[in-house]
Amino acid sequence: MSKLGTLGARLHHGEIGYDFVKNRKIWYGISILITITAIVGLAVRGLHMGIEFQGGAVFTTPKNMSVSVSTAEGYAEDASGHDAIVQKLGDGSMRIQVAGIDTKTSDTIKDRLAEDLKVDAEKINAELVGPSWGEQIANKAWQGLGIFLILVVIYLAIAFEWRMAVAAFVALIHDITITVGIYALVGFEVTPGTVIGLLTILGYSLYDTVVVFDSLKEQTRDITKQNRWTYSEIANRSINSTLVRSVNTTVVALLPVAGLLFIGGGVLGAGMLNDISLSLFVGLAAGAYSSIFIATPLVADLKEREPAMKSLKKRVLAKRAHGGDPDEGQDAPVTDDEYDEPGDVAAAVVGPRNQPASRARGRGRPSGKRR
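RESULT FIELD:
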């Protein structure tokens, strides 16, 4: 842990680092590939919506059932004529979910299940959800998500600037698309818990992004008054200075979520935990990735298109080309026809500042040596 702390301090002070912004095209390509896979999975397999969204019935059996999940699923499908989802709970009871049935059909299915499972019908609990109520829940979920995204963009545009708001919005859409695509590929049921998980991970994603943006805003204040760094290089230093913090917070958040997903849902059989834990697990990981590899490099891309940033880049690169000492304050001459391409940004300089040797050392002493 001490080595990790030392690494974080060295990253924060710029002694070491990785050029995330320079390699942004790689990260963009990876994200596009993952996003396309998620969209294809969503289009081919679709989302497995819970009865809260499409209506249906949920039957809960008594505890300590000896019947297997596959057998109970066959009984439910034969009794209802619809696809059924069966989950075995931690106490040995079963949760049998059948979509698209009404109250009269529910009573018939309940009696058939009691007969097949060899239990008293009175011991099977039945809960009905109407399709109109499920449609209202779905509409409210979409409205909540839309309002959340609008408020986020407005806040970031006011607190920072519109380019950062756009980059954060793209990162959020990236996280939502990947999470929803994973749900389609895995086949997990989408419930109100899933929606809660999505809104939660968007908050975590924004937290990491805002931390980097705040550092970037502070370091780029009066950026045009210096000739040492380009905007992209300062953006890269901001990512490196907050990298360990982002990784630490993400790992700490993922550990309990992993416990819910793999232990609670897999080992203990609490299937309802899968609904929220999968969205949290995938979304937290995607959010940490997007804040580092997507949001900040995208801000750098947008800012480098500004005339002031283009002019700054010309001065910085021209000064380096003429061998100017970055620690000295003089400006190197530059012409307007040099370095016009935005892709000609030099690699970010990450490392300790090398102070020039004093030219006055030894003056005034006959031997030129220290006394």
